[in-house]
Write a structure and sequence with these properties.
Blueprint lengths: L10 E7 L6 H9 L6 E8 L5 H11 L3 E6 L4 H11 L4 E4 L5 E2 L3 H12 L3 E4 L3 E3 L12 E3 L1 H9 L11 E4 H6 L12 H12 L3 E4 L4 E4 L12 H16 L6 H24 L7 H13 L1 H6 L4 H12 L1 H15 L1
Parallel strand pairs: 1-2, 1-4, 2-3, 6-10, 7-11
Antiparallel strand pairs: 4-9, 5-11, 6-9, 8-10
Length: about 325
């Protein structure tokens, strides 16, 4: 429950929109219907080729809290940065246009911020769509140091690494000149939140699920299978490594495991797409890296099944690829 003792600050909700006509109405309606009403909704149509722009305009006529912008396609980072530059709220929230919010998303995240007085707050969990709709029973709120939070966010599988499911104090972002890197289309959100975590006074962490993350959007960059996107993601990870503020063992270890698993995903994509000849030099380097650093795999806190599959790829990429494809067929 949101504390009544606090003034009710304006919260800016920034939604980049691109080619999501199938999901956009549900997303916008979930924002409009928040039980916390003092919000501004910034919808940025990033040159969508479908009907998304028209949907944005239709809702802007219905709700005066909506700001509708139409720009030439410049990518999700440029759209989010534009939203940041015009936001009037004391707090900032990002929502992906194919996702949607529980009715108490804003009030829950604000409550974490009020209780912890942190620059940056997150929920560790979210609903996966399609997926389990069961709510978390333990609703404790914890406070993490910048190093603890950055390590948690970097370590694969601990917390979803998007900029969504989180809330930021706008003044804090401005003072530290934190924006999204526009040269990455994969890992841009991770770069952003790691910078945020490292510069924060502390990070407030809740557990309740209030964000609905869609896994079945086949047009999403995270869903589409592409070798180039993984290569871009590795560049984004290198950028994080080059801008670490803290000389922390836990932070460096989390980054190491994240990079290792991303390299594995890149190898898997190269084999699955049958593009070894196109990426011959990178493939050779990545496979050598995987084998050379296999000890990191064995000590990592990741599922045993993942360790087994990666070990198979290290032994024989051909066998590993065949087994992966077979498993993928069984799941269909």
């Amino acid at each position: 429950m949101l504390s009544k003792k606090k003034q009710l600050p304006l919260v800016s909700i920034i939604v980049p929109v691109y080619n999501v006509e199938k999901y956009l109405t549900q997303c916008i309606e979930s924002i409009i219907n928040q039980d916390y009403k003092n919000i501004e909704i910034i919808l940025i149509d990033d040159g969508s080729p479908d009907q998304s722009g028209q949907i944005v305009d239709r809702f802007a006529l219905i709700d005066p809290r909506i700001k509708a912008l139409h720009i030439n396609n410049g990518g999700v980072s440029a759209a989010r940065n534009l939203g940041l530059s015009i936001a009037n709220g004391k707090y900032i929230v990002f929502v992906d246009a194919d996702d949607y919010l529980s009715i108490d998303y804003v009030s829950y995240m604000l409550n974490i911020s009020f209780e912890t007085d942190c620059d940056f707050v997150i929920s560790k969990n979210c609903f996966k769509v399609p997926g389990n709709s069961q709510q978390i029973k333990n609703d404790d709120i914890n406070i993490l140091s910048p190093v603890e939070a950055a390590s948690l966010l970097l370590y694969p599988g601990k917390v979803d690494v998007g900029c969504w499911n989180k809330m930021y104090k706008k003044q804090f972002l401005l003072e530290n000149k934190i924006t999204f890197p526009e040269n990455f289309y994969m890992g841009e959100g991770l770069n952003f939140i790691i910078r945020v975590a490292q510069h924060s006074n502390n990070v407030g962490v809740g557990k309740r699920k209030v964000y609905h993350y869609r896994k079945d959007n086949i047009t999403s960059a995270t869903t589409l299978l592409s070798v180039d996107k993984y290569v871009n993601a590795l560049s984004a990870i290198d950028n994080i490594e080059n801008h670490l503020i803290y000389n922390s063992k836990s932070l460096k270890n989390a980054l190491k495991i994240h990079k290792y698993l991303t390299i594995f995903a890149t190898i898997k994509a190269i084999l699955f797409m049958d593009e070894i000849n196109k990426y011959k030099k990178q493939y050779k380097f990545y496979l050598h890296f995987l084998r050379k650093n296999i000890f990191n795999l064995f000590i990592a806190s990741i599922p045993p099944r993942t360790k087994l599959i990666i070990s198979l790829y290290c032994f024989s990429p051909y066998i590993g690829s065949k087994i992966t494809k077979y498993i993928a067929k069984l799941r269909k």
